[in-house]
Amino acid sequence: MIKALKREFTALQDDPWQLALISYIPLISIIALWLLFSAGLPRQLPVAVVDLDNSQTSRALARQLQANPVTKPISYTGIPSAEAAMQQGEVYALLVLPYGLKRDLLTSKTPTIDIRYNSQFLLVGKLLSSQLQASMADGLKPLGELKLLAAGVPMQRVAVNLNPVSSQTTALFNRNNNYVGFLVPPVLIALLQLVAMMVFANSLNRELRWNTTAQWYELGVWKVVGAKILFYTPLVLLHGGFILALIYVYLGLPIAGSIAVLLIAQTVMLLAVWLMVLAIFFALKDSARVISFCTAMFAPAFAFMGVTFPTHEMPQLAQWWRVIMPTSHYIETHIAVVSYGQSLIASLPHLLSYWGFLLLLIPISIFAKKGFPAVNEQAEISPMIKGQ
């Protein structure tokens, strides 16, 4: 094992791409992703406004949008130009104030204010949908109060009639609705899984590129695999610790539990990633195919975590895919530790949910025994050389 570890260390020094994968590439990626969400809350999102009424009421509604810090209204003369801007990504939503809006409101008719948003941008679309409706409701309140007073409703009952039932939504573990605490942890964990996959797959593919599979089998397949796991797990775990330190120490986001429990959960997650990469590597035995297959499998990890989309609403195939994604198991422990202060003992059921990945040892053993074409050819040539 010591010889296998020295062999891995020597190979790392001669592989610039692998050195980059375990050093500056993850750090740059982590910081870049954090900077994308560093504002915490979306501000000044462009919204196309088409005012077909051009009345005092419609202009008041437009000013209401201008006062909302989330929206940035941009006036368009017609619906076609506003739709074109939305299709080109210049605006994220479209608001149409219909002709005769003020007249219909004053004559007790029900005009339709058309609100459209791009649902491809999940969070932006949901945020704009709620903010536009809230702005329109607030902007129409003065007119509603005026109509109630004109109908003879006492001033004391106007507010009750406008809002007979008031509701308040409070995020228990994200009171400020900060997107950093909501999105950054799962995004960075998905990135960590991708980095771990690339590091381990590149280490395995190096045996094929350098044609050292015969040496690998001479030392013992499981010894070399064990050395790779012992060598790269702490290195990748350093980046996982950096993510936790960045979020919960440097940024000071609230955490109810212990970071040590999260590091243990990350270690188990990495072991599951190693098993999946090993199974794919020994099954395909081709560098390009291994990287392509692993990337296709692990790239959509964030979508399967269930942070921005309820997993029970996913198709059955997507739910099966989620089960084989190590980050989907980890995120449950992460949320429980961060939000509820779950201890290590209480986290054991989540950690034991990885047991299914141990079944991958069966196909790994079967495919590893078959060897590689290069190994078989060397085995046939060696007796001939000895005979000569």
TrEMBL record:
Pfam families: ABC2_membrane_3. The keyword Transmembrane helix applies. Residues 17-366 form the ABC-2 type transporter transmembrane domain. It is a multi-pass membrane protein. The chain crosses the membrane at residues 21-41, 179-201, 229-253, 259-283, 290-309, 351-368. Keywords: Cell membrane, Membrane, Transmembrane, Transmembrane helix. It is found in: Cell membrane. InterPro entries: ABC-2_transporter_component, ABC2_TM. It comes from the Bacteria. This is ABC transporter. It comes from Shewanella sairae. The lineage of its organism: Bacteria, Pseudomonadati, Pseudomonadota, Gammaproteobacteria, Alteromonadales.
